[in-house]
Automatic annotation (TrEMBL):
GO terms for molecular function: 3-keto-5-aminohexanoate cleavage activity; metal ion binding. Signal peptide: none annotated. The lineage of its organism: Bacteria, Pseudomonadati, Pseudomonadota, Alphaproteobacteria, Hyphomicrobiales. This is 3-Keto-5-aminohexanoate cleavage protein. It comes from Methylobacterium aquaticum. Its cofactor is Zn(2+). It holds the Pfam family BKACE. Keywords: Metal-binding, Plasmid, Transferase, Zinc.
Length: 310
C-alpha cells in the first residue's frame, strides 16, 4: 500500500440507497446536490462522489440532463475532484449506468468489482410513512436483488471510460472483488496507482468488523504491493470507527450522506459538510494532514480538472 503524507477525504453526496423520507437533509434537487458538493469540498473533501436524483421524487436517475444541471456549477464554484457513479441505481442497465460518466468524462468514476447480494431492505426501518410511492417497494425489492457486475460488464466500463482518460475508484465489497481487480490488472485493463475503496457493512458484502478491514488490507497488499491507495467506507454507524482505522493504517477515508445519515446516535447530519468536518477533526487530532484536491490529483495521477466533459 502506498502511504501518503496526507489523507484523501472522499464525500459521497447522495447515492442511491437512502431515500428522501429517511432524512430531510439528503440532497435531491440539482441545486441541493451542487450546494452540498461544494460545501463538502470547502469543508475539506478532495473528492466528491456523485449520483443524480429525479428532482421531483428523489428517485435515482442516470439521466445526463440532470447531471448537466449540477456538474458545471460544481466545477465553477470549487476545485474538487468529481467522481461519477457507474453503479447508479438498482436494476439499471449498463447503458444507463455508464451514460453519465461517458458524457461527463470525469477525472474519476466508480467501478464495482463484483456481483453480490445487495440487501438494503432494512434501511427504511425507522421511517413511519414514506413521502413517495417508489421508496418502500424500491427498498423491499432488494431481498431478491443481485447487484450485477460481471467480468464483461466490468471490462466494458473500464474500456469505455478508459478511452476518456478517466481513472477509477475500485469499489470492493468483499475479498473476492480484490482478486477480480487483480485479474483485470493482469489483463492490462487498468494501470496503477489503484484507488481501492473497501466497503464494509452492506448486507451481502463483507461485515463491518475491524478484523475484516485488516484482512482486506493484507489481501490488497499481497495482490497490489505498493501500487495502490487504500480507502475505506463504513455503512451507517460503522462509518467513523472504520474510516478512522483506515487513516491510522495509512489509508484514506470516505464519508457522506450516501453512506451514513447520522453524525452520532440519534443525531442526523444536516449536510454532507457536517460529516467532512467531523472526520477532519478526527484526522487532525491524530496529527494527520488533509490532502487538497490538487494534492489528491497528483497522488492518483488523474487527468486534471480542465480535461473533463462538463
Amino acid at each position: 500500500m502506498r502511504r501518503a503524507d496526507k489523507v484523501i477525504i472522499s464525500c459521497a453526496v447522495t447515492g442511491s440507497i437512502h431515500t428522501p423520507s429517511m432524512s430531510p437533509h439528503l440532497p435531491v434537487t440539482p441545486d441541493e446536490i451542487a450546494d452540498q458538493a461544494v460545501g463538502a469540498v470547502e469543508a475539506g473533501a478532495a473528492i466528491v462522489h456523485l449520483h443524480a436524483r429525479e428532482p421531483e421524487t428523489g428517485k435515482p436517475t442516470q439521466d445526463t440532463a440532470v447531471y448537466r444541471q449540477f456538474l458545471p456549477r460544481i466545477a465553477e464554484r470549487c476545485d474538487g475532484i468529481v467522481n461519477i457513479t457507474t453503479g447508479a441505481g438498482l436494476g439499471m442497465s449498463m447503458d444507463e449506468r455508464l451514460a453519465a460518466a461517458n458524457w461527463a468524462k470525469p477525472e474519476i468514476a466508480s467501478m464495482n468489482m463484483g456481483s453480490f447480494n445487495f440487501n438494503i431492505s432494512g434501511a427504511g426501518a425507522r421511517v413511519g410513512a414514506f413521502r413517495h410511492p417508489w421508496e418502500q417497494p424500491y427498498l423491499a425489492s432488494t431481498t431478491s436483488f443481485i447487484l450485477s457486475n460481471t467480468f464483461d460488464q466490468i471490462e466494458r466500463g473500464m474500456r469505455e471510460l478508459g478511452e476518456h482518460g478517466t481513472r477509477f475508484e475500485f469499489e470492493c465489497y468483499d475479498v473476492g472483488h480484490l482478486y477480480n481487480l487483480a485479474h483485470c490488472v493482469s489483463r492490462g485493463l487498468v494501470k496503477p496507482p489503484f484507488f481501492i475503496q473497501c466497503i464494509f457493512g452492506i448486507l451481502g458484502g463483507i461485515g463491518p468488523d475491524p478484523e475484516n478491514l485488516m484482512h482486506m488490507k493484507a489481501t490488497a497488499d499481497r495482490l497490489f504491493g505498493n501500487d495502490y491507495y487504500l480507502s475505506v467506507l463504513g455503512a451507517g454507524r460503522h462509518q467513523f470507527p472504520l474510516v478512522t482505522m483506515s487513516a491510522i493504517l495509512g489509508g484514506n477515508v470516505r464519508v457522506g450522506l450516501e453512506d451514513n445519515l447520522y453524525l452520532g446516535r440519534g443525531q442526523l447530519a444536516t449536510s454532507n459538510a457536517d460529516g467532512v468536518r467531523k472526520v477532519r477533526r478526527i484526522l487532525e487530532e491524530l496529527s494527520l494532514e488533509i490532502a487538497t484536491p490538487d494534492e489528491a490529483r497528483a497522488m492518483l495521477e488523474t487527468k486534471g480538472r480542465r480535461n473533463v466533459g462538463f
